[in-house]
Design goal:
single chain; mainly alpha; 2 helices
């Protein structure tokens, strides 16, 4: 997104992903809800989702490195 010139949108996405990571104690599931923050206190993992999932957890680390 950043390479495409969507820096503000990428920042919003990164902030949301990092907030979700914190809500999951940085043990990110492979899939979780995308409901608005105003509707729920924390994201909800799908019952059958692996947790933690390596690539999901690594995504938060990569995002921290880009900031």
């Amino acid at each position: 997104m950043r390479k495409a010139g969507l820096r503000a949108e990428a920042a919003v996405l990164a902030d949301g992903l990092l907030a979700a990571a914190e809500a999951f104690q940085f043990r990110m599931p492979e899939l979780h809800s995308g409901d608005p923050r105003t509707s729920f206190v924390a994201p909800t993992p799908y019952p059958a989702a692996c947790r933690p999932q390596a690539w999901s957890a690594a995504a938060a680390v990569v995002l921290l490195g880009l900031r």
